[in-house]
Amino acid sequence: MTRSILHTLFVSSLVVALLGGLALIGLQAVGLVVGSQALVVGPNGLFKTILCVAASIAAVAAYLLTHVGSEVKARDDAGATR
User: Fold this and answer.
1) For residue 28, how far is the Cα from the chain centroid?
2) Other residues' Cβ atoms within 10 Å of the Cβ of residue 39
3) What confidence score (pLDDT) does residue 22 get?
4) Which of 36, 49, 57, 79 has the smallest C-beta neighbourhood within 10 Å, fewest atoms?
5) How many CB atoms sit inside 10 A of residue 22's CB?
6) How far apart are CA 74 and CA 67, in angstroms?
7) 66 with 7: CB under 8 angstroms?
8) Could you read off the pLDDT tens digit of each residue along the chain, which spans 82 residues?
9) For position 21, what pLDDT does the model report?
């Protein structure tokens, strides 16, 4: 149960971080080509903060997933039943 919740949290936050990062870079690239300062520096506010939070959530969830998986494997190796 915990593993499935962590996995869902990891995947969803990773998708938000990666797609948002691509959008951020795309906007800045278009801003550079067009010469628009607003497109280059505009997404650095709340949008960038949301991306950083999503990436941090993905990192913490990935770390916890490695420990939840090893805990189950250790119990299985010891012969404990679920």
Assistant:
1) 21
2) 17
3) 95
4) 79
5) 10
6) 10
7) no
8) 889 999 999 999 999 999 999 999 999 999 999 998 988 888 888 899 999 999 999 999 999 999 886 655 556 666 655 5
9) 94
CA distance 34 to 13: 31
Three-state DSSP at 1 gives: coil
Tokens coding 26: 């795309």
In the chain, the amino acid numbered 79 is: G
- Give CA–CA dist 53/61, Å, rounded: 12
What type of residue is 46? L
For 56-65, b where at least 16 C-beta lie within 10 A, e where not — what string? ebbeebeebb
Is 21 in contact with 51 (CB distance < 8 Å)? Answer: yes
